[in-house]
Amino acid sequence: MDEHAGGFSNRPDHSDKPSLYADLASQISGLLSGESDPVANFANAAAAIYHSLPNLNWAGFYLIRDGELVLGPFQGKPACVRIPVGKGVCGTAAASRRSVLVRDVHAFPGHIACDSASESELVVPLIRGGVVLGVLDLDSPHVARFDAQDQAGCEALAAIIVRHLGPASPA
How many domains does the chain have? Predict the structure, then answer.
């Protein structure tokens, strides 16, 4: 197996989303197991998600730093570096401590367009011990790319990632 590719195929065709997310959860758990560096774990998780879920143009993390979201490891085009908590989709998810699924970003008041190609977005907060550490952010160039199955699957992935962050701060 190629150590850099991690054995991930390029956007596999999984029509069964529960199986897709179960497979991805197993892969991410294996990738992060035994590694204590949060940057390495965020980077591998972002790559695994980006290369496993179809129709994404961005997958990555924003981490809470001094009261705002700061860009963390990701896959995709360069992105906004800082997002105020409470602003845009990412900031709304962090402030509300709940996942935010946006079928059409143009219909979301205050959407922050880091990539004009993005049409839909799913953001899941990363919470440990009642504290928001950051968010998992997924963007797609397709309207209505994400649904409740994607939200549930990504919430499960976020829980796995948080469990592998170790006792220290996320980065």
Answer: 1
